[in-house]
Design a protein that fits this description.
The complex is a heterodimer of chains A (585) and B (318).
Chain A lengths: L1 H27 L6 H16 L21 H4 L4 E6 L14 H10 L4 E3 L5 E3 L2 E6 L5 E6 L13 H10 L11 H4 L5 H5 L9 E5 L2 E5 L7 H5 L6 H4 L24 E7 L3 E6 L12 E6 L5 H5 L5 E5 L2 H10 L2 E7 L4 E5 L4 H4 L1 H10 L2 H7 L5 E3 L23 H10 L3 E2 L5 E3 L2 E2 L1 E7 L2 H16 L3 E7 L2 H9 L5 E5 L6 H5 L13 H11 L4 H18 L2 E14 L2 E2 L17 E2 L4
Parallel strand pairs in A: 1-10, 18-19, 18-20
Antiparallel strand pairs in A: 2-3, 4-5, 5-7, 6-7, 8-9, 9-10, 11-21, 12-21, 13-20, 13-21, 14-21, 15-16, 16-17, 22-23
Helix pairs in contact in A: 1-16, 13-15, 19-20
Chain B lengths: L1 H28 L13 H11 L5 H13 L13 H36 L4 H15 L2 H15 L17 H39 L2 H8 L4 H14 L2 H14 L2 H6 L5 H11 L2 H29 L7
Helix pairs in contact in B: 1-13, 4-5, 4-7, 4-10, 5-7, 6-7, 7-9, 8-9, 10-13
The chains are: A alpha+beta (585), B mainly alpha (318).
């Protein structure tokens, strides 16, 4: 019986992965099916899938084998680097940008007071240092000397105070998390019009500014230490309760980052030119372009029209990048995690044992890693492996184990009834699953159906082509499990926020809240690490959501680019000023 | 004619009102709004933003506000793009229009020529080959043929650029700019023409076949007119008449953009923008664009009716 199940599963998986390969061939190859190239591709695929033991094929950066294969278009560029970006929309004012792609543009136009390193730890940027008071409530930023905006005007503490203040204006309609998560003293009085300014923000001298919070918050240093807007430029027409004038400045940004906006061509390009006023000195490459690439970026990389883009870290993609000869490859894990949100308002799922049974009973390794040709990893805690808070100590990996799942369901009182489906008090154990239409969902459903059947759970999937419809179905409460993924996370607290702010309905654990607050009450990293470890262990045991996966990506880029680094938290912004094009013969 | 036009224009206004209400309700009732898909925001901040954006007001009030603004020439402000909707239309529609107008022109010219010839030589080997080719072209999905041509012509042979409208980073102006755009639009225009030419050719062919069998064609031949005169003066003119109906439909299509083609070829057109806005629930843009198409459709039908009258005196307008 057991054996048969395994056989079925394996064959299903093989078929599944073949389908995936077929799919990706179709969409990635730019028209694939022609002549010899196809047969070559075919043999490579078979080789790849036979050794798909789980882990991604590439863990170390790979250097281009043969730069002479570089297309002429790319060879002829001497002072310009071109990077693919899905779709910048043209609103280039930090905090007012609605699209994440505009955020990418902003990160080159504007510097931050404080940025983070590859582990997510704060490091100086426009501020050369900072102090945090004994009670952890007051942060004082010390700006570098002689900072300038791209128009040559000086940048001072007044600009910082202005930037923070407008985020608490009642008409502020952007999606910054500062107004809702950082409680600056007196900010609410300002927002309601009771005070003329925010009492917690104090300009000490032109290079020093301090901010006092209602209660300690370890994320405030980095969150408040973000992009700074020029008061002289963005605050010229500011009146309390009216920020609409800023909309007219979206396409003429004045920043303090490594690059200045040269030209925005809607739907096509964002052109940048090096900022001679940048505090670290003018970037090494004079021009930089974000090219809008809605469709597939392969064709642009192959023809040399772009220098840098990312792909899922499948064995197939990695092989293809290597075969181009002129690309360097950089492996990368995104700083977020995927999870199955569980409807905790449903009787069966309120029981921790049932949730654990699902975690054991789902073959996450097959679904998220093997079927993706290694472009993923299994997640068990709400933090990505690249974070400083990540730990596997005392974390239950919930290794795929149908027997264990069955045992837990038995303990929870769900007994096998007619047709092999478990029942309790006359009710069948049914899982109504929601997923958005994607390749990953296409893999998930058949495997999960098999997995759930094996443990006696009736699995009913429903797929949505449109994300909003899915969200409103979730809001209506008509679901048991739904696939989600968090946005990119910076601080470890970002990943656990959803368990305390009411987003996961009906989850209310005072211990989680206590640990969450405790971890934010100090900025000592070692102390915080210890608290997060405890918190992650707790969440890993309770499973308010079922943690599923991390995504692995590879960057393929023109081998001529030197000094390229990508931070999982801030992308290419920090290392871009150092990128240079080495001459090619 | 004058009274006819006034009557028609009154009808048009009524239809547009009904359409605006339908469009508004359709988008207002689709589940989710611009804010609900932003997973970064806390529930309280979401409520606050809905208040600021006016999404928490009752539906009828929102409709009233929208219509009032439209009458003042203000189609609203795109939530996702953070720019006035009309400015966005202006930035993107003309790119779509350029592709559509060139490919429509080519489609019609090719379809008329092939349609006439194959009707004239009905059941000949030429006719058969053309018919088979046309069915093949019609049944290949656009994304396949698009990607296939990119692979062959752009990636392997490097004759044409793989997408976009300009060479990245190009500062070309004047003639050089025009040449660059033509170079970039060749591939998408080929694909759009290939896909469109099939049905139109069939349409003209069957019209032509009907007309050729008419008595007046026989009369014309009997009078001793040259064959090309018979074909192009007498037959073709009449065969083209029913195509005027199509003109009405072409008008919105010229401005509507093509979602798939624009996506494959990375063309900065309105179709792409519309598709993104839909998944983001950017209502002002969605409603504005759908309304624009409704207006163009209504104008298109009026235009084809009037053209009918001009082209064929037998058609009376009441």
């Amino acid at each position: 019986m057991m054996k048969k199940g395994v056989y079925l599963l394996t064959s299903l998986l093989i078929v599944g992965s073949m389908l995936v390969t077929a799919c990706s061939n179709n969409s990635n190859d730019g028209g694939s099916s022609s002549g010899t190239a196809q047969t070559e591709q075919g043999t490579k695929d078979t080789a790849a899938s036979s050794d798909a033991g789980g882990t991604s094929a590439l863990t170390e950066p790979y250097t281009a084998a043969d730069l002479s294969k570089l297309p002429d278009v790319a060879k002829q560029r001497t002072d310009t680097i071109i990077v693919a970006l899905t779709d910048p929309s043209g609103a280039f004012t930090p905090y007012f940008t609605q699209s994440g792609y505009d955020g990418n543009v902003n990160s080159l136009l504007f510097g931050s007071l404080v940025t983070v390193d590859d582990k997510g730890l704060p490091v100086p940027d426009l501020a050369e240092k900072w102090d945090i008071s004994e009670d952890q409530k007051t942060i004082t930023y010390h700006l570098r000397k002689d900072l300038k905006f791209s128009d040559g005007s000086p940048m001072t503490a007044d600009d910082v105070a202005f930037t923070w203040t407008i985020l608490f204006d009642p008409s502020y309609d952007g999606d910054s998390i500062i107004p809702s998560t950082i409680a600056i003293q007196g900010a609410q009085d300002y927002k309601s019009g009771k005070a003329k300014s925010i009492s917690g923000i104090k300009v000490v001298d032109p290079q020093t500014i301090s901010v006092t919070l209602d209660k300690p918050n370890a994320t405030a240093l980095v969150t408040l230490g973000s992009n700074i807007l020029s008061k002289a430029y963005y605050g010229k027409d500011y009146k309390f309760g009216n920020l609409s004038y800023i909309k007219n400045l979206h396409q003429t940004p004045v920043g303090n980052g490594p690059y200045k906006l040269e030209k925005f061509i809607p739907g096509q390009e964002v052109r940048f030119v090096a900022n001679e006023n940048y505090y670290k000195g003018k970037p090494k490459t004079e021009h930089f372009i974000y090219k809008t690439s809605e469709g597939d970026a392969w064709q642009y990389l192959e023809t040399g029209e772009i220098d840098y883009t990312s792909f899922p870290a499948t064995t197939e993609n990695i092989e293809k990048l290597k075969s181009l000869g002129f690309t360097n490859i950089l492996p990368y894990t995104a700083s977020n995690y995927g999870y199955l949100q569980v409807n905790l308002e449903h009787e069966a799922l309120k029981d921790k044992k049932v949730r654990q049974a699902i975690a054991y009973g789902l073959d996450r390794q097959s679904i998220y890693v093997d079927a993706n040709e290694g472009a993923g990893a299994v997640a068990n805690i709400p933090a990505p492996p690249i974070s400083w808070a990540y730990t596997e100590d005392g974390i239950n990996p919930y290794k795929f184990d149908s027997e264990k799942a069955k045992q837990l369901l038995d303990e929870a009182g769900w007994k096998v009834g007619a047709g092999g489906i478990r029942e309790k008090d006359g009710k069948k154990l049914t899982i109504h699953y929601l997923g958005s239409k994607s390749k990953q969902t296409d893999i998930f459903i058949p495997v999960a159906k098999e997995n759930f059947q094996a443990i006696g759970v009736d699995f009913q999937p429903e797929v949505f082509a449109d994300f909003n419809s899915l969200v409103s179905k979730v809001e209506s409460g008509d679901y048991d499990l739904v696939s989600f993924s968090t946005p990119l996370l910076q601080d470890p607290s970002d990943g656990v926020m959803q368990f305390i702010d009411g987003e996961i309905k009906a989850y209310d654990n005072p211990k989680v809240k206590e640990l969450y607050d405790k971890a934010l009450a100090t900025s000592d990293i070692e102390e915080r690490k210890a608290v997060y470890k405890e918190l992650f262990q707790l969440l890993n045991d309770e499973l308010p959501v079922i943690f599923t996966n991390y995504k692995k990506t590879v960057y393929g880029y023109n081998g001529r680019i030197e000094n390229l680094k990508v931070s999982p938290f801030v992308g290419l912004a920090n290392s871009l000023p150092d990128w240079s094009l080495k001459p090619v013969q | 004619m004058g009274t006819y036009l006034t009557k028609r224009i009154i009808y048009m206004i009524v239809i547009l009102f009904a359409a605006s209400f339908l469009i508004f309700s359709l988008y207002a009732l689709t589940p989710g709004d611009f804010i609900s898909s932003n997973i970064k925001l806390s529930p309280e901040r979401k409520a606050e933003l809905r208040e600021i954006y006016g999404l928490s007001k009752p539906l009828l009030e929102r409709y009233g506000i929208w219509m009032n603004n439209v009458f003042h020439g203000d189609f609203g402000f795109s939530l996702a793009q953070q720019q006035p909707v009309l400015k966005l239309f202006n930035q993107y529609i003309w790119n779509s229009f350029l592709l559509a107008v060139v490919s429509t022109f080519l489609t019609w010219v090719i379809a008329v020529i092939i349609g006439v010839v194959s009707a004239y030589k009905q059941y000949s080997w030429f006719d058969t080959i053309v018919m088979v080719a046309i069915f093949a072209a019609m049944s290949i999905p656009s994304f396949f043929i698009g990607l296939f041509l990119i692979k062959i012509l752009a990636v392997d042979l490097k004759w044409l650029p793989p997408g976009g409208m300009l060479t990245t980073g190009s500062n070309a102006t004047g003639w050089a700019y025009i040449k660059e755009v033509i170079h970039h639009m060749t591939l998408p225009v080929i694909v759009m023409t290939l896909l469109g030419v099939g049905s139109l050719t069939r349409y003209f062919r069957s019209n032509m076949i009907d007309v050729i069998k008419q008595d007046y064609i026989r009369t014309a031949r009997a009078k001793g007119l040259k064959e090309d005169k018979v074909l192009f003066r007498h037959a073709l003119r009449n065969a083209l008449l029913p195509a005027i109906t199509l003109v009405g439909f072409e008008l919105p299509a010229l401005f509507g953009g093509s979602i798939i083609i624009e996506k494959i070829f990375n063309w900065p057109g309105i179709g792409q923008l519309y598709m993104q806005s839909f998944s983001l629930r950017d209502y002002p843009l969605l409603m504005g664009f759908t309304m624009l198409l409704a207006i163009l459709t209504v104008i298109g039908t009026l235009l084809s009716d009037v053209l009918y009258h001009i082209a064929d005196p037998r058609v009376r307008l009441h």
